[in-house]
Amino acid sequence: MTRAALLFTVSLAALGGAAQAQDLRDLQARNAAAQAIEDARRDLLSSQIEMSNANERARTQLILRDLNDQRAGAPATPSAPALRPLEDPARGDAALSSSMDRLERLTQDALAESNARMRAIRPASEPKPVKPRS
Q1: N or C: which end of the chain has fewer CB within 10 A?
Q2: CA–CA separation, 124 vs 108, rounded Å?
Q3: What does the pLDDT average to over 54-59?
């Protein structure tokens, strides 16, 4: 009976060893797949960094070229459209004056409304009116 138990134990250990070997192979396969994904991610990140660096180099070259043109006295191309003067200065003054009057009116209206609210609040020290009982 001891021999049968020993054979049974050895066979279970062999089956467990085979299952463990399969687990190791699965683990190795998962690790290899994870490593491949990590390598692809690094390659993508590296190419993105290279693209960004190339864009920055090109932008720097443009800036330096513009600075050299300015230093040499070459007319630079305007980056923003030139501001045009007001057609009628009197009309601009009238619009500014009406805007200021409107702003002043709105401010005074808001102040009057705020004062009315403040006057509507009764002080805590004021006694409440007593209604006569009938």
Answers
A1: C
A2: 28
A3: 90
